[in-house]
Amino acid sequence: MNNIKIYLISCICFGLLAGCNDEFLDLNPKTQINDDIFWNNASDLKTYNNQLYAQYFNSKGFGRGGFNAGILTDDNLSDNAFVQNPGDVRLGIHSVNQPGRSNWNWALIRNINQMLENSEAADIDASIKNKYIAEARLLRALDYYDKVKLYGRLPLVDHVLSEDDELLYQPQATRDEILAFIKADLEFAVEWMETEAEVNRFDKYVAMAYMARIMLHEGTFRKYHGLGDETSYLEEAKLAAENVINSGRYLIDDSKSYNALFANINLKGNQEVVFFRDYGDEFQLYHNVSNILTHVDGAQFSGAKSLIEDYLCTDGLSIEESALYLGDDNLSNEFANRDLRLSNTFALPNTYFIGEKLYLNSSPISIVETASPSGYQIVKFFNEEQDIQAWDRAFIDAPLIRYAEVLLIYAEAKAELGSISQTDVDNTINLLRSKAGVAEMTLDQGTVIREIRRERRVELAFEGFRYDDLMRWKEGSKLAEPVLGLKFNDEDIADANSYEIGQDIYLNDEGYIFSNNVYSFDEAKNYYFPIPINEISLNPNLVQTPNWD
């Protein structure tokens, strides 16, 4: 298991991020590195790569503070979350002028290409040189695929551009061409990375896990969007995940609670984690997760009813099927006899930082209490000791790749290929269910894909996967459905009798809290995002994302 400390200082020292033109395709910047003398030893390559790690991972994990907590708040784009003030993308009202999400920034690609061009000519032993080239190429693959998920087609930039380079005005390459480019980078990384790497750096199994993630996304996106050639990508996902599993380095530890993994200030050596972002005093790297979860003015996001309903009962049956389900008139009943991940992700009264009753953000009574919009108060990533940290000073570590995700990738790839067996289920899904106190799954080929998707949703809730999952499965229509919270009741909710229904809070006909926002999703265009208009002005050969003209 490896982790990444983000060396932001190195970015400044080398001047590689200063004076950059982040528009267009980013020309070769004026840097403080003298190429004639710098690229002469492994230490130079390692030092340069430090800033590449920093540049890519700066916004990953829990981000850098404020009300954006990276993987925790990324699910606010999805149907997992009931958000106080949902953004334009969640509401489906984003536009070309206000796209909501954008990643048309080529600075990192330029800096990686600079490293690759200079290191190729360096007089360094190939076995040493190639492991650093592998780091850079994996980072390039990750950044490129992040862009693929947003835009589909991209310019293919494989070298440092000069001012008169004809590629400055190239049209986008095809998705097939871009994926071949990404796949070549991933394969090089897997081939040349060491099995054991220094702390803070990629190793071979991290590369395999990232490859499995990307190949699964691409394979399923192609299958459900009718792009073709999904089988080859699903096979690659299966193989990469299988190699990580067979390494014997990782496990699911059912001796510890689910949330113990997420409330951890030090994930180093944790066999449930393949790769993580390390926060702490050493490099002055902090985030704001503790304050976001327990903010005295109320958390701005919470769980949605549809997610809560996807947690099984302990007999392995859904709430619609199980005789163990006690209904949802109050939280005590709703959480009874359920998957343990439910009560490790959301709070009951008298647990975690919650008192005898829950507070809602919409309370008509002036409160100085932790509250939430839906009543399903999120406690995943809550660490009691961190709760006393000042604003933007929390430092629990952020898992970037968990072994549980690798198991889910393997199971889903095999299910999509039609080759999953009961043994596969036992070695993946049932390991997760065992830790969650849920009865084992018996393979049913007719429902296995649906069950794996459900398992993935509850296992990875509020880790930033759900929106991308809906996009690749072509299930964006779920984002247009009403967003509900818990059933309003005076057992759980403080000052319940003080609310004026329809003014302080909105309830549907069945008595569930609901968001009065209007949600929409345009199947014709919302699976991708628009290219920034100024980029098309700079390069008229770029073709705007379909239906965003």
Layout: helices, strands, pairs:
Layout: E1 2-4, H1 8-14, H2 35-38, H3 42-57, H4 71-74, E2 81-83, H5 88-91, H6 107-120, H7 126-151, H8 175-192, H9 204-224, H10 230-246, H11 258-262, E3 273-277, H12 289-293, E4 301-303, H13 305-309, H14 331-335, H15 340-345, E5 359-360, E6 371-372, E7 398-402, H16 403-417, H17 422-427, H18 429-435, H19 448-459, H20 466-472, E8 484-487, E9 512-514, H21 533-538
Parallel strand pairs: 1-3, 5-6
Antiparallel strand pairs: 2-4, 3-7, 8-9
3D architecture notes:
The protein contains 21 helices and 9 strands. With 549 residues, it is mostly helical. The strands form 4 sheets. A 3-stranded mixed sheet has the order 1-3-7. It has a two-stranded antiparallel sheet with strand order 2-4. It is globular.
Strand elements, count: 9
| Relative helix content | 25-40%
Distance between the termini: 45 Å
Query: Which whole number gives the mean pLDDT?
Result: 92
Keywords, separated by commas or semicolons:
single chain, three-stranded mixed β-sheet, 21 helices, 9 strands, 38% helix
